[in-house]
Amino acid sequence: MDAILILGAAVWPDGPSPTLRRRALHGAALWHAGVAPVVIGCGGLGRHPPTEAAMIASLLLDAGVHATAILQEGRSTTTIENIRFALPLLRSIGATRVVIVTDATHGPRAARVARHYRLRARVSATALRGSHPPTVMRQAVRELFAYPLYAARLWRMPRDD
Description:
It holds the Pfam family DUF218. Residues 2-144 form the DUF218 domain. The chain has helices at residues 18-32, 52-62, 79-92, 107-116, 133-156; strands at 2-6, 11-12, 15-16, 38-42, 70-73, 97-102, 120-125. The protein is an alpha/beta fold. It has a single domain (2-156), classed as HUPs (Rossmann fold). Helix 4 (107-116) links the parallel strand 6 (97-102) and strand 7. It is globular, with a radius of gyration of 15 Å.
């Protein structure tokens, strides 16, 4: 079985951030296209309620994803935690492969984390249309530093076997 894993992004005081909305709607489109029967929203509580996972679930429901196809991982606050905390959910449904939904700039790091946890993963990035160009540039620069830091951190981390 496969699963779609939507990585969290900020919840703003008035609702989902544009990034979170794009990710959730992209995940819904993948589900409607039959890519996987289960969608897992990831992300804990940030500055504003609800959790990112709960907001993803709400957006998925609004986009016509069946409630029985939605699972939530609502404790994580980092990319490593998104994937590590989703592992028990993935195991409970027998998922052997995941499609990670995130932004193109974040995809390589997320895939690296998934490989660390021995997941067969591919990234399906959201479209850049509607993105704020300075934000995308900041994200790309952040990833230049974050990827090697995460690689070093993962090298020292157990795989939770």
